[in-house]
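Before a colleague's protein record goes any further, I have to sign it off. Alongside the sequence sits a line of tokens, each denoting a local backbone shape. I want your independent view on whether this chain really folds as the tokens say. Where you disagree with what is written, explain briefly why. This is what I was given:
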Amino acid sequence: MQRIQTLLQKLSELSNQKGEPSLIDVDLMMDYTRVIYADLHELRNRIGFNSSLPISEPEATEPDNISLENMEPELIIKDTTSYIQEDEPVQEIAIGTPEPMPAASAEPEPVLPISTTAEHTRPSIKNLVGINDTYLFITELFDGDRNAYEHAISKLDHLEHYQQAVDWLREHYTWEEDSPATETFFSILERFYLDA
């Protein structure tokens, strides 16, 4: 019961924060709710909620001298004439032969080069960042400003090379180069631009 009270308190604190809740806050509230539900379900089973309900079992009755020899079979005949309408003609389906496949040409189709310009659509950096890292980056690198994080990711998504991204970040942010959050962020960036 203590854990349920603690989780309810955490839920209350998260929901009473001023402003719009972040995605991480909503995820935390959902996780807390799942744990509360599981604990309450377990508590309900322990209390034996269903054990106090009377269970009535059907009474078995013996049939009175029924034998198979004395029974007459019942035939159920359905009137199927109402399903057939004689006014409607029967539709015939013509089954033809499939068209032959075109013969393979001797010349292979030309291979088109893959575009590496900005018009080439690639996934966002967000796809490489897990929820825990997102929370870490927002709190450690962007001083808790989710909008600044979103703006930076949007800008970095549109840059072409890793070095451009590093230059842009150093121009706009002063991060400790040897902090774990900075190292993780740059390793994700490097992976993003290598895959692009």
